[in-house]
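Journal club prep, shared notes

We agreed each person brings one worked example of a sequence with its structure written out as tokens. Mine is Release factor glutamine methyltransferase N-terminal domain-containing protein. I'm keeping it raw so we can talk through how to read the token line rather than staring at a rendered picture. Sequence first:
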Amino acid sequence: MLPPSLIRTVAAQELKWLKQHARNDALALNDLVRRRANGEPLQYILGTQPFGPLNLLVRPPVLIPRPETEHWAIHLSSLISPTLKRPLSLLDLGTGSGCIPLLLCHDWPKGSLRAHGIDISPDAVRLASDNALRCGTPTPTDPEAHDANTFQAVLASYLTSAFLDVIEPPFDIITSNPPYIPLHEYQTLPDSVKKYEDRGALFGGRDGLDFYRAIARLVSHKGVLSDDGLVVLEVGHDQADAVSRILVDTGNAFKIDIWLDPWGKRRTVVARKEAN
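Then the structure, token by token:
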């Protein structure tokens, strides 16, 4: 529970943003305040959420990008330096708003990244496509795609490998912030999350690990991941060891690293495939 002084500070800042939003879009401030008082996330009311250097559109029920995700995506961006002569291909599983691949498309040199994002939600695919347009990131078939980083959002499920008929592997990087909240934790989430954000983007099965098992099956397919490919997965606060074991059990020669989030939680499992 936040101390009263901090609660007042946060409330005052939120009111300031709501007033600005009301002025900019000729909206009734009372309606915005009522929505917030009813528990609707501030990001949905404002319609945008900063993510690194980007200011992305957000719409219910698509998952709102979190600071934890922003932190590791920026770190990933800083560690890799693709070039026009040595471009990379990236697959983002459960892309949601498209925040992860779009940040990398923004940060990395033009023409150095070919990114795809898949999601089972039509709402997410529409939002990710709208964000790509907002960020000026073309699709691979766009006339402006020459010497540009590209991103395409595709409606598909990664619980099976059928989508690989549409998106051509191998991929140098596979990223995901999959649903990872286990049943016992999902039941305790605040209403502002359960009532507004897509359950399918949050609930990871009874133990929270269902989607990591699906990702492990996917990377086990021959030719999906390049010989020295990288898998970068956001995980729940106590899931890093379990997810690491799931990846190692695929039989791939993975070198595992774990990144901490800004609050010291073991938040991101990074698996580098070691070439034979």
